[in-house]
């Protein structure tokens, strides 16, 4: 779907995690279903993955876990999956910035604490993690990873001493941690899901037979043949036990307009077959394409998307403009994570190896090329170039998002401002740099339409942060 | 692009090889370029791959080779590629039937013979290989593999004793071997390419700076930034030396109409960005789609392709019918060769894990679903089913090839007749079995149009074999 | 030297760790020297190993670590070692009981705490670890491993808040932890070594050029070409900084006779070329053999040791008795950790595969066979059997240790009492069970002689524990 | 036992193969027994190994084989062994010179020929292999490996066309191949063993229940619990079928004194627990030590062997001289094939890492150090040096073989003459170079005594070759 295979933003932007929890009341093993679920979330993180399971009928605190660097099908073998017995479990796929890409940081985090064992998987970035770390260290805490999950785990553990249940401890912890997080916590007899009050990251509930699922994206429910129950609300804590699902909404904002879903989930991160808080990712992209066609029309013969994430908006543009939609590119889907990149000096380029143009489709045509973002601009320039080489008469670039101008503190790995092509440049200057005949970005106002009115976070485009950003740059070492 | 990732024929049909030879007169190392070239051919064989190189300025017969089971990026590491010094080389990707899937059978075949060393890569299946093997054995030959390449190698070696050059020996061997083959032979100072007189399998010539390339598909030339020179003609032997390209066409058919290109290269095997003998694969598929629209029209709201190989014909159908083209499926591109298949009993199905439907795109619509073939029919039935589940009102299936009815002896791994859904069934019966509202196949007459008049082999559809098929079934153990 | 390759106690008894720290004031990289040092300690632990390094001139708290399951030469590659830059480092080899044999538990433990980073390697078992864990959990601690090292690390971290230096924090922690431990702690600018007041486990100081070493056994100093400086005293904390070695002996026993070195280090665990607290392991074994010859003489033609650890005592027995020493066994040194054990039903036995008898050496002879221990007795019976098969006329077994009768709580993995052959049996009964003509054990009084008067722990033989054993059996899950 | 782990000749000399064939008439699977047998032969070759099996009740010519680079326990897993079904099989361990150390060259060689399938394992070096290769190539043969086995296989295949049985074909082939070979050939229903007329390499027959074994060394029979039947005679062909063992001695020398067993098998290559042609390797070494004591006496306090292969002769020297035998060295048995060698510049030396001296054993003593050979002399110098460092007052070196002066063409990888320390130097000069107080070699006359009168090859010492050596140096590329 993206990232390593993607020629567009995926080369330059990274989502940071996907979580998948499952609790089977019929006591079937959940590990292999979690494995298939993580497959459906693989686009959210390709660096490491892990599964931790437990048996709710077994001895309290006996957890079986396996984590490793790489994709799901590299880390897990049939033997490993078969060894992971248990009817409750949590899985995780992870991407991280280079510095902290180690096995120690792979999730789920499994730990012993006062009440037995806890496994924890989360997606997002805390804004106050460094402060919380320092505070914990002053009270004698030791940290064996550099992931936020460990900070969250400590808070749950400390709250647990004072509270009557693990879900209360999670609530207590949530009062202290600030930032973006969707969380799945497995305790010996309960599975808890929580989403930060802003709702930055998605999390939803599914059901299959007598089992409940908590998962980052609804597409994974289709994959495993489960039905979608509902989204976890921003600020909500759901506790899944034998007795059903309990909901704690005390931490939800009274004023729902303070919520701030990451709009980039709709634009790029999520799979098009996912639906978040009632809004289809596919529809959002079609809408963005339609909006671009209305706002930035141009006469042309063909609309094409840069695969894969540009295709949805391209289809929308074509629908609105009545200019035929077509396929211009062939992507080599064998070019994966472990692909040997050509050296600078070599005649081959990574772009050419991953992407080829269908000359017959574009030769002699005026082409509208839709992409979801321009980050540094180098890839866009290369793609415009190979379209022209293949005989395209004109290349008009339309981007289904506004220009990136500001850092994200909530989990998206956007490069620093000086590396962003849009930083300090006009649209025309960018257009010249990438060699296009014309260039337009989606207007910011259109983002809200795209999300069908849901309150969203547009900080990376607008600079308007829903939470005060930290004074020191917390991205990097401690980014999870 | 296909095969392991593909929900359609790729699950059931397999191409059997791709070859890539390169000779750099400027004495640069060719191994890493061959590696990138094999990437572009990976869809032709995912089971094993290998590269053999030599230095034309070095000691005669010193060949460095590395072969292994798996994809290019699994078999080759930077260290291995850097260790493969030489300015002439040949690479191979291979698929084989289960029985003979061993490292011994990986290509290229490297051997010492009377005139030093030979490395040989080939694509295709000989019809008379078992006879030739037996004959050779009677004269004291030993066989260490079960691939046809070893039979070809023996004939070249034996001819070489009687002839003045390796290209003459190749010509001599070609007089004895019968069947489908595209061949690249590396001798210490020459690179030779040959194609059987029927031209079953493609082979073309490329050039980059001062280096020549022989490759199965032209798309690999784009990948490495080389230009297309021309196709090797059916029956032609080209000999590449310092002095340029020599051509020997003595074995070409006088009567060109006897040529018999495998039409399935256009329908399914090849990448759409390849061009064979002047016909673009992309164009051929568009034409097939247009023909289907003309021959088998139906009222509908949406035309969709089963990814990836159905997309071209879907676009053609949409162009001709004016029914909007759209995307109905999201394919999980992380599901690769080493993916753990769900057990029969599990709730997850391989189809659901690989393919999801965009409900928003198809719900309430009459959908025309284009695929390139129906082999056993099970996958088609599953896909029709998930479209209906997602709310499609009608599902009309159009297949961009005629029904499979006969075995192939020339390198395509078609299952035996009793497993072919079309064997002994009417189209309506098949339509019922896969649960579609209507079903049409491409008419056989359309195939020639698709290939723009080139003589083609349609034996698997028509039963008209360009060569008398062998009496015993040679598919299986000795299939290469 | 032993363990997996050893036919005697090594099959049944296991040491639990070896540590190696190094600090080079000349700023050379220490990782590869630590690697060679761990090789020399490999007999102390074959299950996992790890190295953590830091640069004392670099940013505080930047630690590079690599840990893995397996032997040193399985875990480390040249690439990995070259990537471990730093002039201060600590390494560890580990054996553990089955339950907690996971990568998470591999050492050194690397962690962030209030004062930056700490890497910690230790050898031994705490008696009060479970109590300390529970206490820490009540104050909100989380545990990610089941090793005692994490308990020690927490105490150091908590003490560090109250104290002025890391060595004071170690001293503070040592007041709380009770049991057997030899410890190497690496902080950003210091390397600290500590040994519990009983001195159960060895630890010594070495020097090479301008670098200091802390290591479990002196043999590793020979291996890396370093000189032996002195042993760390029981109860002593040594702090190595640029300014040299500081010693803190406040925790040493006033009454040195309370010290309790593990006598099994001399009998079996340690390499014969090591010297602990002034006593040579080789000499101790020679003495044990001599004592056996004096206490339990028998007429015979040949004295042989069960390789490798029985050889020293066999030589001593021969010296004292003047009965010729010889070699009776050929050990297959290729039978390592990953060797596939024969199935119960197969005709091959693990003993025969590892050990063969030199028929020519023993046929027709009365043989005295010296071994270091009998645990379950099964291996001894097999070895006596193959000696007889090879033609030995008589087999007299002499054991260079008293019979095992009691559990060890300080780090030696002795099976539970009901599995010990000596439990509830007379020497004559054991003799009959293993099929020997006569059997004698070393007398307990001889142990002190063997250790040349050093205060030793003989609890596993005598039941006299230097520390009150815990009420619950702490061996198992939390054993480190 | 040796080679990678050995500090003596093993660092510099290499045996080149071990073979193990088994045929179970009770139709039990033989693969795992072959595996254990190869373990016992591992000292004969650590570079690659392989097993090929077949079912004599199954379809003719169905062979299952697995080969790989590395030690037996690295190449084979339980899964692989379990997959190798068949009641007849042949295994091989191999060492080779650097140039041809590839997987292609691993044995057994498995091939199809006129009569079905053949698996072939052999030990030794043909003197006329290059000539035979050339001859075969002129008749159109192709070679896929550089091992002599392929030449032998061709001859068997060609003879088979003309003869009535595979054993006749082997006999026919043996008339053409000249040199050293012990051969095991598996055909669909027969197992054939053959030994060249000179008997350079050992081969013996064993039996277990209803199964026959053909193996390089008798020690492997002990390992698998089989009994020794007899040696295959030099020049004999034994054919094992359901009907028992048939013997063909037509190719044996009439004049038995022409036989030429490799004396180095007794001195160094073989395991001491093996017996060849009635002579015990252990006894031969004891005899060599005794002879040294008689011929080259010296006053001293201690006799020690350089482990492992020097120990036997050291024991013999001690017996004869009445000077006490002792242990001076501790060898690190964890230092295996994949051990990372210290760089030239590093402070650690490979010798120190592998070998340490027991200071307590040698300090202040006059030591006689027995080794089996001196090749280049560098290792000997290092070992003498560390003995002196450890306080030995005198070091007298006695070598249980004469000095190496000539190349071996029959399978022992002796370096070229200019690298042999004995080439062009007097014993006193060598003594000075290695820093010993005195040095003596075994006298050539003693070799025959050592072999108890058996005709032996002493060409590497005497230059008297039993076969005319080839004119061109055939060692290297084609050495097997």
Write structural notes for this entry.
The structure is a homotetramer of 480-residue chains. Chain A is α+β, with helices and mostly antiparallel strands and 480 residues long. Chain A contains 16 helices and 23 strands. Chain A has helices spanning 31-41, 72-75, 78-83, 129-138, 148-162, 166-174, 219-223, 264-269, 281-295, 311-321, 350-354, 359-362, 378-389, 427-434, 444-450, 459-462, and strands at 17-24, 48-54, 63-69, 88-94, 109-113, 116-123, 182-187, 190-195, 204-208, 211-215, 227-231, 237-241, 244-248, 261-262, 275-276, 279-280, 302-305, 329-331, 355-357, 366-371, 394-399, 438-441, 456-457. In chain A, helix 5 crosses helix 6 and helix 9 packs antiparallel against helix 15. The first copy, chain A, starts with 16 loop residues before the first strand and ends in an 18-residue tail after the last helix.
């Amino acid at each position: 779907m993206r990232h390593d295979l993607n020629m567009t933003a995926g080369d330059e932007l990274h989502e940071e995690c996907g979580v998948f929890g499952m609790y089977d009341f019929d006591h079937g093993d959940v590990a292999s279903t979690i494995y298939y679920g993580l497959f459906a979330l693989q686009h959210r993180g390709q660096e490491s993955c892990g599964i931790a399971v437990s048996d709710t009928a077994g001895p309290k605190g006996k957890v079986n876990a396996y984590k490793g660097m790489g994709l799901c099908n590299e880390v897990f073998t049939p033997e490993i999956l078969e060894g992971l017995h248990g009817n409750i479990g949590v899985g995780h796929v992870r991407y991280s910035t280079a510095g902290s890409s180690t096995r120690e940081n792979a999730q789920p985090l499994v730990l012993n604490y006062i009440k037995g064992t806890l496994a924890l998987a989360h997606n997002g970035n805390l804004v106050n993690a460094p402060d919380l770390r320092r505070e914990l260290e002053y009270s004698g805490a030791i940290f064996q990873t550099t992931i936020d999950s460990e900070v969250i785990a400590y808070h749950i553990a400390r709250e647990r001493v004072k509270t009557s249940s693990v879900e209360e401890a999670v609530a207590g912890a949530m009062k202290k941690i600030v930032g973006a997080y969707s969380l799945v916590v497995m305790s010996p007899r309960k599975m808890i899901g929580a989403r930060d009050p802003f709702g930055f990251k998605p999390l939803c509930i599914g059901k299959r037979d007598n089992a409940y699922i908590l998962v980052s994206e609804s597409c994974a429910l289709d994959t495993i043949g489960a039905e979608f129950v509902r989204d976890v609300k921003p600020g909500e804590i759901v506790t899944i036990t034998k007795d059903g699902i309990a909901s704690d909404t005390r931490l939800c904002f009274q004023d729902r307009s303070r919520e701030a879903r990451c709009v980039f989930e709709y634009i790029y991160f999520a799979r098009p077959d996912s639906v978040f808080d009632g809004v289809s990712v596919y529809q959002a992209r079609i809408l963005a394409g339609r909006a671009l066609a209305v706002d930035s029309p141009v006469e042309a013969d063909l609309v094409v998307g840069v695969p894969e994430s540009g295709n949805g908006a391209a289809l929308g543009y074509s629908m609105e403009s009545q200019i035929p939609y077509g396929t211009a590119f062939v992507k080599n889907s064998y070019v994966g994570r472990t692909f040997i990149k050509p050296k600078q000096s070599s005649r081959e380029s990574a772009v050419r190896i991953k992407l080829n143009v269908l000359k017959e489709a574009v030769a002699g045509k005026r082409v509208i090329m839709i992409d979801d973002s321009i980050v540094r601009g180098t890839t866009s320039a290369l793609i415009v170039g190979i379209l022209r080489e293949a005989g395209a008469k004109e290349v008009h670039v339309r981007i289904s998002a506004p220009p990136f101008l500001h850092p994200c503190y909530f989990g998206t790995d956007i490069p620093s401002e000086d590396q962003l092509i849009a930083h300090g440049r006009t649209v025309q200057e960018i257009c010249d740099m990438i060699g296009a005949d014309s260039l337009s970005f989606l207007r910011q106002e259109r983002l809200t339409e795209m999300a069908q009115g849901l309150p969203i976070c547009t900080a990376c485009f607008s600079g308007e942060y829903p939470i005060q950003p930290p004074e020191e740059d917390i991205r990097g070492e401690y980014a999870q």
